[in-house]
């Protein structure tokens, strides 16, 4: 008797009948409750009106543009394009080309941060667009360059410049500024030579 009792206690019981009864009971109490695995349930069928109210599937939405966090995230093309967008984004196509020409002329000259277009663009105090990044003048006049969005035209100008196919509309100018908002110590009023005007900027050579 004792051996049969111990054997019945240690053998795994068959609970299938109990599970069926419990499942039936739960379904009577709440039809939404069930012991069946969730993976066996089919997704609910929704009408077109319900889908419209739910909106698009989040996984199908386009990802937002990645925000660059540092200069190491930008290649030379991006640095040049954002320089032009920051310095002359509201200017005409020719005005944007003029600013890029100055950058190119400085690279050829070698006295404005080096002979590399990227180095010239990022040289301290030369293009105020980058002041917040370089820390020049405590960032005064700098822009949020990482969120600038250069136009397709600006990228086109940069591509021509990097391929050596961009004409110079400034006559070799090394400097430019907007006399309506700036009066630099090297400007026209202090002996600088600035004979050319394109849009809001004057172009020439500092004193």
Short structural description:
The protein has helices at 2-10, 16-29, 48-54, 76-88, 93-109, 117-122, 131-134, 152-162, and strands at 175-177, 193-198, 201-205.
The CATH topology of one domain corresponds to Arc Repressor Mutant, subunit A
Q: What is the end-to-end distance?
A: 116 Å
Whole-number average pLDDT?
79
CATH C-level category of one domain = Mainly Alpha
> If you compute it from the alpha carbons, what radius of gyration comes out, rounded to the nearest whole angstrom?
35 Å
Biggest beta sheet summary: 3 strands, antiparallel
Series of H and E elements? HHHHHHHHEEE
Broad structural category: mainly alpha
Unreliable spans: 1-10, 31-41, 53-68
Query: Do you know the CATH architecture of one domain?
Result: Orthogonal Bundle
Helix content range of the residues, please? 25-40%
Shape: elongated
User: Count of helical segments?
Assistant: 8
How many E-type strands?
Answer: 3
Spatial strand order of the main sheet? 1-3-2
Instruction: Tell me the name of the CATH homologous superfamily of one domain.
Output: Cell wall hydrolase SleB, domain 1
What percent of residues are in strands? 5-15%
């Amino acid at each position: 008797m004792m051996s049969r009792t111990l054997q019945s206690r240690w053998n795994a019981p068959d609970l299938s009948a109990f599970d069926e009864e419990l499942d039936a009971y739960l379904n009577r109490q709440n039809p939404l409750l069930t012991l069946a695995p969730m993976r066996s349930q089919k997704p609910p069928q929704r009408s077109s009106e319900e889908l419209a109210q739910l909106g698009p599937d989040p996984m199908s939405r386009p990802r937002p543009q990645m925000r660059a966090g540092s200069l190491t995230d930008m290649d030379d093309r991006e640095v040049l394009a954002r320089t032009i967008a920051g310095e002359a984004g509201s200017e005409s196509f020719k005005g944007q080309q003029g600013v890029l020409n100055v950058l190119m002329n400085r690279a050829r000259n070698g006295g404005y941060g080096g002979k590399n277009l990227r180095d010239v663009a990022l040289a301290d105090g030369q293009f105020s667009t980058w002041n917040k990044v370089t820390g020049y003048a405590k960032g005064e006049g700098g822009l949020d360059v990482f969120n600038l969005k250069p136009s397709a035209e600006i990228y086109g100008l940069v591509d021509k410049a990097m391929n050596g196919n961009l004409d110079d509309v400034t006559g070799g100018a090394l400097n430019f500024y907007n006399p309506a908002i700036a009066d630099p110590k090297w400007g026209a009023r202090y002996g600088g030579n600035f004979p050319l005007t394109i849009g809001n900027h004057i172009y020439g050579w500092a004193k």
